[in-house]
Amino acid sequence: MDHYKKKSEILAEEISKLPYGEIIYHSKISDILSEAYGSQSYRQNVQAAKKILLREYGVLLESIRKCGYRIVEPGNYVGQSLKHYKRGFNEIKKGSDVLSHAPVDRMTPDERDEYRRVNDRAVILQAAMTGGVVELKTLARKRTPFVPKLSG
Predict the structure, then answer these.
(1) Is the pTM of this model over 0.85?
(2) Could you tell me which of 62, 52, 51 has the C-alpha nearest to residue 24?
(3) What 8-state DSSP symbol labels residue 106?
(4) How far apart are CA 29 and CA 22, in angstroms?
(5) Nearest CA to 82 among 122, 142, 132?
(6) Residues 4-55: pLDDT tens digits?
(7) What sign for the dihedral angle of Cα 35, 41, 47, 48?
(8) How many whole angstroms separate alpha carbon 26 and alpha carbon 45?
(9) Cβ-count burial 29-49 (b if 16+ within 10 Å, e if not)
């Protein structure tokens, strides 16, 4: 029956059986996928498996440079999510930098209109993201003024 499954599905299924904290080495992944480590097909199958693992099994992998992947412990999911939010925020900041240094004086009237529309929204988005990042960091702390500690 496995011959009808995609390689990424087989990999996800195998990894889902492992305990939290377990390291799965690139060599083991290569064996499961029958793909050479570092090949395009290997990378694509691993990325697809990571999505399947998270969505279908609630399992998150973190990369261990030049080694493989670790199955993230449940208590580390918040920290991992904050890393992704921060990366997204950094990309928004890069986009904002591009707009703030745009040669507006050399744009046509139509281009300036487009610039203003996008820039106005980008300023609002960046402000919202800045507030959101601060809020997420605050909520991730063990004790916050917003959330009472739950017993149990």
Answers:
(1) no
(2) 62
(3) G
(4) 13
(5) 132
(6) 899 999 999 999 999 999 999 999 999 999 999 989 999 999 999 999 999 9
(7) negative
(8) 12
(9) bbebbebeeeeeebeebbebb
CA distance 19 to 148: 31
Give the Cβ contact number of residue 69 at 10 Å.
Answer: 22
Q: Is 106 exposed, middle or buried (0-12, 13-18, 19+ CB in 10 A)?
A: exposed
Burial of 99: CB neighbours in 10 Å, binned 0-12, 13-18, 19+: middle
Three-state SS sequence of 16-77? HCCCCCCEEEHHHHHHHHCCCCCCHHHHHHHHHHHHHHHHHHCCCEEEECCCEEEECCHHHH
pLDDT band at 148 (very low <50, low <70, confident <90, very high): low
Kindly report the backbone phi and psi dihedral angles of residue 25, in degrees, each rounded to the nearest multiple of 5, phi listed first.
-80, 155
